Amino acid sequence: MTRTEEFEELRPLLFSIAYRILGSVSEAEDAVQESWLRWECSATRPACAKSFLSAVVTRVALDVLRSARVRREKYVGPWFPEPLLADPYQDPERSAELADSLSMAALLLLERLSPLERAVFVLREVFAFGFPEIASALDRSEVACRQLAVRARRHMDAGRPRFEADRREREELAERFFDAFREGDVDALREVLAADVHMIGDGGGKAPLWGEEGAFGIDMVARRVAVFAPLFTGVGGVVELHEVNGQPGAVLRARDGKILGTWALDILDGRIQAIRTVINPDKLQHMGPVADAWAILREAQRVRRSAEQPHDAQPARR
């Protein structure tokens, strides 16, 4: 097998490691590309390509993360990871760990860890690397890496959600939610929302949102969704059901098929606990052409005003 073939075989794994460390598709792809350059320039051929490249991509991702964290502190409004519609790396033996670690909720918890804790958790808990490999990748002792793993696991277990195990039940609940969304049916929405549900969005100050401060509680969230739905569908918007970061969700598209945003649902105990929307155009570009959300909002407002205007009464016939 050539070097190129070895690298391409491992590319899905490398991207998945980098994405979980960085929470960014574009930055993860850059980290993988940098790993390829270092792999290609290596004077000797490593005994284990997987260990070598996993270590390289982890180090590159950590360097990027340290500078990215400074930028995120200045981010306008809530910061969410760039939505990922499909994980390129699949491992049937670790499918549950891979899916849970990909969720928006889990990635936001990872943001609370130090960069080293985050890297150790991803390598150990998600991808099952041994501590000797992790120690080599991070240039730390095995004892230090084990301590980092304990701290990271404690932080993650304290706040990590436990999603419904039955994928089909989650999908059916998501279908009911988006059916109610399309119809603007408040009562149907209330049937699938948890009492303490919260809805919050990431626009980065670059797109209109229905309140970046978020909506909390079943009544407020149901009303907000029901208000947004007729405006969106009234201008030809389309809701395309799709997994978002391994959880039920949807891609919202404008009339011309361009992407307006993503909605990801956290489902627990047969109810939707959280709705996270991403509409920042910078975070959607990897998915295809992005719609002008401001233009769509202006069109929706014109349509609503037109619908609200009373029609002139017809003159009575003599």
Q: Which key phrases capture this entry?
A:
single chain, 318 residues, alpha+beta, Butyryl-CoA Dehydrogenase, subunit A, domain 3, Nuclear Transport Factor 2, Chain: A, 2 domains, 12 helices, 6 strands, 54% helix, 12% strand, RNA polymerase subunit sigma-24, transcription, ECF_Sigma-70_Domain, transcription regulation, sigma factor activity
Description of the molecule:
Residues 7-69 form the RNA polymerase sigma-70 region domain. It comes from Streptomyces malaysiense. Belongs to the sigma-70 factor family. ECF subfamily. With 318 residues, the chain is α+β, with helices and mostly antiparallel strands. The chain has two domains: 3-159, Butyryl-CoA Dehydrogenase, subunit A, domain 3, CATH 1.20.140; 167-308, Roll (Nuclear Transport Factor 2, Chain: A). It is 54% helix and 12% strand. It has a six-stranded mixed β-sheet with strand order 2-1-6-5-4-3. A hairpin with a 5-residue loop joins strand 4 (249-253) and strand 5. The radius of gyration is 23 Å and the shape is elongated. The model has no long low-confidence stretch (mean pLDDT 91).
What topology does this entry show?
Layout (H helix, E strand, L loop, with lengths): L2 H20 L2 H17 L7 H25 L21 H8 L1 H7 L4 H12 L4 H8 L3 H18 L7 H17 L2 H7 E10 L12 E2 L1 H17 L3 E4 L7 E5 L5 E10 L2 E8 L14 H16 L10
Parallel strand pairs: 1-6
Antiparallel strand pairs: 1-2, 3-4, 4-5, 5-6
Helix pairs in contact: 1-2, 1-3, 2-3, 3-7, 6-8, 7-8, 9-10, 9-11, 10-11
Q: Would you summarize the structure shown here?
A:
The protein has helices spanning 3-22, 25-41, 49-73, 95-102, 104-110, 115-126, 131-138, 142-159, 167-183, 186-192, 218-234, 293-308, and strands at 193-202, 215-216, 238-241, 249-253, 259-268, 271-278. The chain has 318 residues and is of the alpha+beta class. The protein folds into two domains: 3-159, Butyryl-CoA Dehydrogenase, subunit A, domain 3, CATH 1.20.140; 167-308, Roll (Nuclear Transport Factor 2, Chain: A).
